[in-house]
Input
Amino acid sequence: MDGNGRWAEQRSLPRTAGHTAGEENLAEVVRACVARGVGWLTVFGFSTENWVRPRAEVRHILGLHERLFGRLEELNENNVRVRWIGRPFDGPEARTPKYVQRAIRRAINDTSSNTGMTLTVAFDYGGRAELMAAVRTLRSTTGTVDADRLAAHLYDPELPDVDVLVRTSGEMRVSNFLLWQAAGAAIHFTDASWPDFDADDLDRALDLVR
Ligand code: IPE
Ligand code: MG
Output
Protein backbone atom coordinates (compact mmCIF):
# COMPACT_ATOMS: atom_id res chain seq x y z
CA MET A 1 0.00 0.00 0.00
CA ASP A 2 2.33 2.65 -1.32
CA GLY A 3 2.27 6.42 -1.21
CA ASN A 4 1.34 7.23 2.38
CA GLY A 5 4.44 9.38 2.81
CA ARG A 6 3.87 11.36 -0.39
CA TRP A 7 0.19 11.83 0.46
CA ALA A 8 1.26 13.44 3.74
CA GLU A 9 4.04 15.53 2.20
CA GLN A 10 1.59 16.97 -0.36
CA ARG A 11 -0.47 18.19 2.58
CA SER A 12 2.49 19.42 4.62
CA LEU A 13 1.76 16.75 7.22
CA PRO A 14 4.24 14.41 8.90
CA ARG A 15 4.70 11.04 7.16
CA THR A 16 3.09 9.36 10.15
CA ALA A 17 -0.19 11.16 9.35
CA GLY A 18 -0.05 9.54 5.91
CA HIS A 19 0.30 6.09 7.45
CA THR A 20 -2.63 6.80 9.74
CA ALA A 21 -4.74 7.88 6.76
CA GLY A 22 -3.61 4.73 4.96
CA GLU A 23 -4.78 2.48 7.78
CA GLU A 24 -8.15 4.24 7.79
CA ASN A 25 -8.43 3.85 4.03
CA LEU A 26 -7.73 0.15 4.34
CA ALA A 27 -10.85 -0.17 6.48
CA GLU A 28 -12.81 1.57 3.66
CA VAL A 29 -11.31 -0.61 0.97
CA VAL A 30 -12.09 -3.77 2.96
CA ARG A 31 -15.75 -2.70 3.10
CA ALA A 32 -15.75 -1.91 -0.63
CA CYS A 33 -14.23 -5.32 -1.42
CA VAL A 34 -16.78 -7.09 0.76
CA ALA A 35 -19.60 -5.21 -1.01
CA ARG A 36 -18.23 -6.42 -4.36
CA GLY A 37 -17.95 -10.03 -3.30
CA VAL A 38 -14.16 -10.20 -3.42
CA GLY A 39 -13.12 -13.51 -1.88
CA TRP A 40 -9.51 -12.77 -1.03
CA LEU A 41 -7.79 -9.46 -0.38
CA THR A 42 -4.11 -9.50 0.48
CA VAL A 43 -2.40 -6.28 1.49
CA PHE A 44 1.28 -5.45 1.90
CA GLY A 45 1.45 -3.74 5.28
CA PHE A 46 5.13 -3.93 6.11
CA SER A 47 8.03 -5.54 4.29
CA THR A 48 11.20 -7.24 5.44
CA GLU A 49 13.00 -4.18 4.02
CA ASN A 50 10.95 -1.59 5.94
CA TRP A 51 12.71 -2.07 9.29
CA VAL A 52 15.49 0.33 8.25
CA ARG A 53 13.10 3.30 8.27
CA PRO A 54 13.47 5.87 11.08
CA ARG A 55 12.58 4.32 14.42
CA ALA A 56 9.72 6.67 15.15
CA GLU A 57 8.13 5.90 11.78
CA VAL A 58 8.50 2.14 12.31
CA ARG A 59 6.98 2.46 15.77
CA HIS A 60 4.04 4.37 14.34
CA ILE A 61 3.47 1.78 11.61
CA LEU A 62 3.62 -1.03 14.21
CA GLY A 63 0.98 0.75 16.27
CA LEU A 64 -1.22 1.03 13.18
CA HIS A 65 -0.96 -2.70 12.65
CA GLU A 66 -2.08 -3.23 16.22
CA ARG A 67 -5.05 -1.00 15.39
CA LEU A 68 -5.81 -2.72 12.11
CA PHE A 69 -5.66 -6.22 13.59
CA GLY A 70 -7.72 -4.86 16.48
CA ARG A 71 -10.74 -3.88 14.35
CA LEU A 72 -12.46 -7.08 15.39
CA GLU A 73 -16.00 -5.80 15.70
CA GLU A 74 -15.89 -4.32 12.21
CA LEU A 75 -14.24 -7.37 10.72
CA ASN A 76 -16.77 -9.70 12.31
CA GLU A 77 -19.68 -7.50 11.22
CA ASN A 78 -18.40 -7.82 7.67
CA ASN A 79 -17.82 -11.58 8.03
CA VAL A 80 -14.12 -11.07 7.23
CA ARG A 81 -11.61 -13.73 8.18
CA VAL A 82 -8.14 -12.39 8.96
CA ARG A 83 -4.90 -14.13 8.09
CA TRP A 84 -1.27 -13.08 8.19
CA ILE A 85 1.80 -13.90 6.12
CA GLY A 86 5.35 -12.98 7.03
CA ARG A 87 8.54 -14.25 8.62
CA PRO A 88 7.68 -16.62 11.46
CA PHE A 89 7.81 -15.01 14.92
CA ASP A 90 10.16 -17.68 16.24
CA GLY A 91 12.59 -17.45 13.30
CA PRO A 92 16.15 -16.15 13.61
CA GLU A 93 15.36 -12.87 11.81
CA ALA A 94 12.07 -12.18 13.56
CA ARG A 95 11.66 -8.61 14.76
CA THR A 96 7.92 -8.31 15.30
CA PRO A 97 7.29 -7.00 18.82
CA LYS A 98 5.17 -9.07 21.17
CA TYR A 99 2.22 -6.66 21.21
CA VAL A 100 1.89 -6.88 17.43
CA GLN A 101 2.24 -10.68 17.56
CA ARG A 102 -0.57 -10.77 20.11
CA ALA A 103 -2.82 -8.54 17.98
CA ILE A 104 -2.19 -10.75 14.95
CA ARG A 105 -2.88 -14.00 16.82
CA ARG A 106 -6.03 -12.60 18.36
CA ALA A 107 -7.37 -11.29 15.04
CA ILE A 108 -6.76 -14.64 13.35
CA ASN A 109 -8.36 -16.50 16.23
CA ASP A 110 -11.36 -14.22 16.73
CA THR A 111 -12.30 -14.09 13.04
CA SER A 112 -11.53 -17.69 12.12
CA SER A 113 -15.15 -18.77 11.81
CA ASN A 114 -16.09 -15.95 9.42
CA THR A 115 -17.02 -17.22 5.98
CA GLY A 116 -16.92 -14.10 3.82
CA MET A 117 -13.80 -12.44 2.49
CA THR A 118 -10.35 -13.47 3.67
CA LEU A 119 -8.17 -10.46 4.45
CA THR A 120 -4.52 -11.45 4.55
CA VAL A 121 -2.08 -8.91 5.89
CA ALA A 122 1.54 -9.27 4.83
CA PHE A 123 3.61 -8.01 7.75
CA ASP A 124 7.39 -8.46 7.92
CA TYR A 125 6.84 -10.11 4.56
CA GLY A 126 9.11 -10.52 1.56
CA GLY A 127 8.47 -12.74 -1.46
CA ARG A 128 12.06 -13.93 -1.67
CA ALA A 129 12.21 -14.68 2.05
CA GLU A 130 9.00 -16.70 1.66
CA LEU A 131 10.38 -18.73 -1.24
CA MET A 132 13.73 -19.30 0.45
CA ALA A 133 12.01 -20.49 3.63
CA ALA A 134 9.94 -22.98 1.63
CA VAL A 135 13.00 -24.29 -0.20
CA ARG A 136 14.96 -24.61 3.05
CA THR A 137 12.15 -26.57 4.70
CA LEU A 138 11.81 -28.88 1.72
CA ARG A 139 15.53 -29.55 1.52
CA SER A 140 15.76 -30.39 5.20
CA THR A 141 12.65 -32.59 5.20
CA THR A 142 11.86 -34.37 1.92
CA GLY A 143 15.02 -33.36 0.08
CA THR A 144 12.94 -32.85 -3.05
CA VAL A 145 11.93 -29.45 -4.36
CA ASP A 146 9.21 -29.32 -6.96
CA ALA A 147 6.48 -26.82 -7.77
CA ASP A 148 3.66 -28.55 -5.89
CA ARG A 149 5.72 -29.11 -2.76
CA LEU A 150 7.01 -25.57 -2.87
CA ALA A 151 3.50 -24.13 -3.15
CA ALA A 152 2.49 -26.28 -0.18
CA HIS A 153 5.23 -24.74 1.97
CA LEU A 154 4.55 -21.07 1.37
CA TYR A 155 3.56 -19.02 4.44
CA ASP A 156 -0.13 -19.63 3.72
CA PRO A 157 -0.56 -22.55 1.33
CA GLU A 158 -4.29 -21.81 1.11
CA LEU A 159 -3.73 -18.37 -0.37
CA PRO A 160 -4.90 -18.69 -3.97
CA ASP A 161 -3.04 -17.37 -7.00
CA VAL A 162 -3.47 -13.64 -7.42
CA ASP A 163 -5.96 -12.53 -10.09
CA VAL A 164 -5.19 -8.85 -9.96
CA LEU A 165 -2.35 -7.00 -8.32
CA VAL A 166 -2.78 -3.32 -7.50
CA ARG A 167 0.14 -0.95 -7.27
CA THR A 168 -0.62 2.52 -6.04
CA SER A 169 1.23 5.79 -6.11
CA GLY A 170 2.46 5.75 -9.70
CA GLU A 171 5.11 3.10 -9.04
CA MET A 172 5.42 0.44 -11.73
CA ARG A 173 7.12 -2.26 -9.73
CA VAL A 174 6.21 -5.50 -8.00
CA SER A 175 8.58 -4.92 -5.05
CA ASN A 176 8.94 -8.44 -3.71
CA PHE A 177 5.21 -9.03 -3.19
CA LEU A 178 3.71 -12.52 -3.62
CA LEU A 179 6.33 -13.46 -6.20
CA TRP A 180 5.09 -17.03 -6.51
CA GLN A 181 1.35 -16.38 -6.18
CA ALA A 182 1.23 -13.44 -8.60
CA ALA A 183 2.99 -15.18 -11.48
CA GLY A 184 -0.03 -14.80 -13.74
CA ALA A 185 -1.67 -11.74 -12.21
CA ALA A 186 -3.09 -8.82 -14.15
CA ILE A 187 -1.66 -5.59 -12.77
CA HIS A 188 -3.55 -2.39 -12.12
CA PHE A 189 -1.27 0.62 -11.80
CA THR A 190 -2.76 3.79 -10.42
CA ASP A 191 -1.32 7.22 -9.68
CA ALA A 192 -3.48 7.48 -6.56
CA SER A 193 -1.58 7.42 -3.29
CA TRP A 194 -2.82 4.64 -1.04
CA PRO A 195 -4.87 6.96 1.25
CA ASP A 196 -6.67 8.23 -1.89
CA PHE A 197 -7.28 4.80 -3.40
CA ASP A 198 -11.07 4.59 -3.64
CA ALA A 199 -13.92 2.41 -4.83
CA ASP A 200 -13.69 3.72 -8.41
CA ASP A 201 -10.05 2.72 -8.54
CA LEU A 202 -10.96 -0.64 -7.06
CA ASP A 203 -13.56 -1.14 -9.79
CA ARG A 204 -11.00 -0.33 -12.48
CA ALA A 205 -8.74 -2.98 -10.98
CA LEU A 206 -11.53 -5.55 -10.80
CA ASP A 207 -12.52 -4.76 -14.42
CA LEU A 208 -9.25 -6.40 -15.44
CA VAL A 209 -10.57 -9.75 -14.29
CA ARG A 210 -14.37 -9.43 -14.61
C1 IPE B 1 3.57 2.88 2.34
O1 IPE B 1 3.79 4.26 2.21
C2 IPE B 1 3.65 2.40 3.77
C3 IPE B 1 4.72 1.43 4.08
C4 IPE B 1 5.65 1.07 3.24
C5 IPE B 1 4.73 0.87 5.42
P1 IPE B 1 5.24 4.83 1.96
O2 IPE B 1 5.84 5.14 3.28
O3 IPE B 1 6.02 3.91 1.09
O4 IPE B 1 4.94 6.18 1.20
P2 IPE B 1 5.89 6.91 0.15
O5 IPE B 1 6.37 5.90 -0.84
O6 IPE B 1 7.02 7.52 0.92
O7 IPE B 1 5.00 7.94 -0.47
MG1 MG C 1 6.84 3.86 -0.76
Summary: Residues 128 and 176 are 7 Å apart (CA to CA).
